[in-house]
Design goal:
Length: 356
């Protein structure tokens, strides 16, 4: 048992849920920040939640928000974390074009608020800090593959907010000798991925089409290419960064790139459908070779005002210094997400049946 204490912002998100599990397995006491919501928002961590009255409870949830500095200072003071993982963020790139100011407040200033909380409370010697930085920093890529030294060129309010968060983390490390590290993580997915990110949107839709409860999958840019890994691997990398003697910044990725179109093909192949692409641009469609049915259409609504065309990592530094590497292949990732969503859609249908 490590006996250490961790505080995680964004614990109700995909990565928060995997990281909380990992730290509990390692013997940590884990405090997570959840937002007040009018409906339940803890589904991803419900299975690790233990009644706090239980004397063996090591996982605790606290209300909080990255836009509320008094709340953050109090939570850091009360929990006195050895490790603070800042995973909370308005994390959807497209949504950041709709809510740019809020995104800057939570993603950029939220990071500053946490760093200041550590400083105000004089926890610089005790609390190690992890910042959830992102490959979106590279945006309009200046070099391929992207590594720690590749210049940044963000292409969205989200990317710009995360750029501030990246540099303020570096600045606090250099100014106040904080053990603060940036994980520059490339896209990572899982069955717990938010439903509006492209991979999960695809696996959910393919499962729903397979079960006959959806006709068409509408997507935006099919040509976008991403370096997709599994979230479970990546939270291990976050933890490793905070176990190093010296803080530093690391790229985590698979070193492999695939297009959205390829992801669609793989997902349909899982339910034994072969997709043929016809037409071009906004008129492109994906047709089921066997039945001739159109299953995929392009909807320009999902095009972004500025797009990040491709992202490909060079994770050599993490491999050499942390001994970290991605272990889940693209095929296995799609397979795991498809297997899960084929079940999830059925369960949702059952539930609906009960309310009808
Ligand atoms: P999710 O969107 O799944 O989770 C985000 C979490 O942040 C949720 O718990 C959400 O709460 C919480 N949150 C949002 N706004 C606030 C706020 N104002 N105050 C407090 N909490 C807030 O993201 P992921 O788990 O996928 O990503 C984790 C982090 O890593 C994010 O910072 C993301 O930007 C970054 N990142 C993610 C990558 C990926 O591929 N997944 C790659 C690189 C970086 P709620 O559940 O209530 O919405
Ligand atoms: P991204 O993930 O923007 O890379 O950010 P997302 O899955 O949203 O998009 C990936 C690519 O797919 C294209 N795309 C679509 N995207 C969505 N969401 N919906 C669609 O219908 C669609 N059609 C095509 C997008 O244009 C894009 O090129 C994720 C988030 O987790 C960030 O928080 C994180 O920092 C980065 O990954 C690394």
């Amino acid at each position: 048992m490590s006996g250490k204490t961790a505080l995680i912002t964004g614990v109700t998100g995909q990565d928060g849920a995997y990281l909380a599990r990992l730290l509990l397995e390692k013997g940590y006491t884990v405090h997570g920040v959840k937002r007040r919501s009018s409906s339940f928002n803890t589904a991803r961590v419900d299975d690790i939640y233990v009644d706090p009255h239980d004397e063996n409870a090591r996982f605790f949830l606290h209300y909080g928000d990255l836009t509320d500095s008094t709340n953050l200072i109090r939570l850091v003071q009360e929990t006195q974390p050895d490790e603070l993982y800042n995973l909370g963020a308005q994390s959807h790139v497209q949504v950041s074009f709709e809510t740019p100011e809020y995104t800057a407040n939570s993603d950029a200033l939220g990071t500053l608020r946490l760093l200041e909380a550590i400083r105000i409370l004089k926890l610089e010697e005790k609390t190690r800090f992890y910042q959830a930085s992102t490959s979106e920093l590279y945006g309009l890529v200046q070099e391929t593959p992207q590594r720690e030294t590749t210049p940044f060129y963000p292409r969205s309010p989200y990317g710009a907010a995360k750029l501030y968060a990246y540099w303020i983390t570096v600045n606090y490390r250099e100014s106040y000798r904080l053990h603060a590290s940036n994980g520059i993580l490339f896209n990572h997915e899982s069955p717990l991925r938010g439903e509006t990110f492209v991979t999960r949107k695809i696996t959910r839709a393919v499962a729903a089409i397979h079960h006959g409860v959806q006709d068409t999958l509408y997507l935006g840019n099919l040509d976008a290419q991403r370096d997709w890994g599994h979230a479970k691997d990546y939270v291990e990398g976050m933890w490793l960064m905070l176990q190093q003697d010296e803080p530093d910044d690391y790229v985590l990725g698979t070193g492999e790139m695939h297009s959205v179109r390829e992801f669609v093909e793989k997902a349909f192949a899982h339910v034994e459908k072969s997709i043929e692409w016809r037409g071009e641009g906004v008129d492109e469609i994906g047709v089921d070779r066997a039945s001739g049915r159109t299953l995929v259409k392009v909807d320009p609504r999902y095009f972004r005002p500025a797009e990040v065309d491709l992202l490909l990592s060079d994770p050599a530094k993490a491999r050499e210094k942390l001994g970290w590497q991605s272990t889940t292949s693209f095929d296995r990732l799609v397979q795991e997400m498809m297997d899960s969503d084929l079940q999830v859609i059925l369960t949702e249908q059952d539930r609906q049946g009960r309310y009808d």
